[in-house]
């Protein structure tokens, strides 16, 4: 059973320095190797580890454990990890920690990005201050309130009979293809965003759009909202901006796929399961 996480603005014990500490330096999180395949985040505060923190914030409680985020003050040559510990990329935690911890690490990094980018008020330029009772920053001059930024994006598995529409982006490894995706624009529904993105990138029309699942994606602050959709017409034409190749793929002709850390892979695996009757 998944351990519940309860966001909060104040720790149960304000003097506590133990718990779960998501300590970041240059986008990498401090971890300890448990064994060859397992990692654990720090149970001690930066101060108790002798590390200078530029920013700390309480996240909430994971079960009965207080959780904190910290970003280290960076010397010119970077921060050195304490003995027995190392700084690792957020993606490297997937599969090496519990899913709950991986998700919390993503939450922590998103909060760091937000805090770093909102030092000053966007309306009057005054230095912002943290609000004590919620995860927000406030301008003491004009009272503008800033909450952590989320950028909703739709991602969709488009199916035509027994084939799925996959595309290659110039950002991908040479042979890797994935599902189509794009950010939601002001004034449109999620379903409208699905239809627009598919048509803009490939010239394909879709219908029967159905919600599947969602995933926080902290690179840097997206919320991926997954859908399935049915081919309704059109022939593939490439926009040459977001993608450089696209095609219809059957189960037995799939190219290199995204890792299982992404919701794109979940959508593709769902397609495989539907076609074969076997869990991908």
Folded structure, characterized:
With 280 residues, the protein is of the alpha+beta class. It has two domains: 5-97, no CATH class; 151-276, Nucleoside Triphosphate Pyrophosphohydrolase (Alpha-Beta Complex). The chain is 16% helix and 38% strand. It contains three helices and 16 strands. Strands 1, 2, 3, 4, 5, 6 and 7 form a seven-stranded mixed sheet that branches. Strands 11, 12, 13, 14, 15 and 16 form a six-stranded mixed sheet that branches. Strand 9 and strand 10 form a beta hairpin. It is globular. The mean pLDDT is 92.
Low-confidence stretches: none
User: Which architecture of the largest domain would the CATH scheme give at its second level?
Assistant: Alpha-Beta Complex
Q: What is the fold named in CATH at topology level of the largest domain?
A: Nucleoside Triphosphate Pyrophosphohydrolase
- Helical run tally: 3
Mean pLDDT: 92
What is the N-to-C succession of helices and strands? EEEEEEEHEEEEEEHEEEH
User: What profile does the largest beta sheet have?
Assistant: 7 strands, mixed
Assembly type of the chains comes to single chain
Instruction: Summarize the amount of helix as a percent range.
Output: 10-25%
How many β-strand stretches?
Answer: 16
CATH domain class name of the largest domain = Alpha Beta
